[in-house]
Structures are given as structure tokens and as C-alpha cells.
Amino acid sequence: MTIRLEDKQRAYAELRDIKANLAARGWFPATSGNLSVRVGDFEPGAFTFAITSSGKDKSVSTPEDFLLVNEKGIAVEATSLKPSAETLIHSEIYRLTGAGAIFHVHTVFNNLASELYAERGSIPVDGVELIKGFNIWEEEAQIEIPILPNYAEIPRIAELVEGALVPRIPGIVLRKHGIYAWGANAFEAKRHLEAFEFLFEYVYRLHLLKK
Predict the structure, then answer these.
(1) What is the spatial distance between Cα 36 and Cα 15, in angstroms, rounded to a whole number?
(2) Which among 1, 3, 25 has a CA at the least distance from the CA of 103?
(3) How high is the pLDDT of residue 106?
(4) Separation CA 79–CA 195 (nearest Å)
(5) Quick one: pLDDT at residue 1?
(6) In the chain, fewer beta carbons within 10 Å around the N or the C end?
(7) CA distances from 25 to 18, 58, 74, 83 (A)
(8) Tell me, what's the pLDDT at 211?
(9) Which residues have C-beta within 8 Å of that of residue 31, sequence separation ≥ 6?
(10) What is the C-alpha to C-alpha distance for residues 71 and 62, in angstroms, rounded to an integer?
């Protein structure tokens, strides 16, 4: 698929901005987390996206921060850079949803919430205003945010994504790992990520109040 230079530059600029924003919040501890933005045309079996390079300090900006990969997670340009180890999960989410951007962060609250409700298989949220951040407008809406096991082998996790997707919930949590949030574009994915993180903190603090 042909990728225009300006489309690649725009994707890298979006990733640079969101990386700086989320790093300032402390959401990339120890080089963890990854971000991607889809570039160019999309078909479920053929697409390209820009993704963060593996092992980079996301609190600083360098020319080696991002690279382009195809739907199989393989670099489409000559490079010595390696995509994030979790690129296959991004690939599967893009294939299944047609999303425009996917953001993955590790925070204390998304880890705690995932462990608290691990046996349930989803994190319940009932009637909280920030549910509207997902364009869910019912009064006192109740949602369940899916939890997947955090296997060491990324392909094993990627295989489970399709069965875990809930159409109106733009996110999946890996147990004791972090949240993948997506949207039609970078702005929407960021909004969804912020809503998830607020809800995770709410759920955990509410649990403590009820003890």
C-alpha cells in the first residue's frame, strides 16, 4: 500500500505529542507502554501503522522513536529499529475494529482493577459519568471492561482479542499489565484512555471504601 510522506509525518507528529503528554503523567514507567496510529488506506487484511520503537525512553524525543509496520507487524521500510513487543496486539485490534489509533499504558490503577476483578473476567463500572466518554449515553449506564490474561507469549494474547471485544467498549485490559484503548483517531483514543484511567481509579477507591 502506498503511504504518502505527509501522512507518515502527520502520524509521527501525533504520536510525538501524545507520547509527551502521557509521559508527563507518568504512564510509561521503565520504558513500558506503546502507542500507534494507523496510516493510509485500510482493509482488514492490508494496512499500515506507525508504532513506538521498542525499549525507548518515552520521556524524551529522538529521531528513532517510531517506525512503520504492516498488518503483520513487520517494518515496511529499511530500519534497524524494532517495533514494540506487543505490536501483534495492535495489529489484531486494527484488523477487527478499523480503529485509527491505539494507546497502551501501564498504571497502578489499571493493574489494581484488573487484579481485583480477574476472576470475573471484566471490570464492572456502574453509573459513573465518565462512561459517557465512550459515547454511551444511557442514564446510570453499566459497562464491563474486558480483562485478558497476561501471557508471556504475545501471539497467545493476540489470539484472544477477537473473543474479548465488546463493540461499545473501546478497550481491553491485560491482567496486572495495562490498558489498550483505541479510537477513530488519536484525539478519540486519548479521550477513551483518559476515561478508562479515571474509571479504574474510581473502581478501586470505591472498593476500598466498601471494605
Answers:
(1) 7
(2) 25
(3) 96
(4) 35
(5) 72
(6) C
(7) 11, 11, 30, 23
(8) 75
(9) 55, 56, 57, 58
(10) 25
- The Cα 150–Cα 171 span in angstroms is 15
pTM, rounded to two decimals: 0.96
Name the packing angle between helices 186-210 and 108-116 (round to 10°).
60
Quote the pLDDT of residue 2: 83
Contacts of 152 (CB under 8 A, 6+ apart): none
pLDDT score for 165 = 97
- DSSP states of the chain as a string? ----HHHHHHHHHHHHHHHHHHHHTT-SGGG--EEEEEEEEEETTEEEEEEEBTT--TTS--TTSEEEEETTS-BSS--S--B-TTHHHHHHHHHHH--SEEEEE--HHHHHHHHHTTTTTEEEEES-GGGGGGT--STT-EEEEEEE---SSHHHHHHHHHHH-BTTB-EEEETTTEEEEEESSHHHHHHHHHHHHHHHHHHHHHHHHH-
Amino acid (one-letter) located at 134: F
C-alpha cell at 178: 495495562
- Which pLDDT value is given to residue 102? 98
* Pairwise CA distance, residues 183 & 62, whole Å: 26
What amino acid occupies position 117? Y
All 3 cell numbers of residue 15? 504520536
Enumerate residue ranges in the chain where pLDDT < 70.
none
CA–CA dist 122, 120 (Å, integer): 6
pLDDT per residue as tens digits for the range 161-189: 999 999 999 999 999 999 999 999 999 99
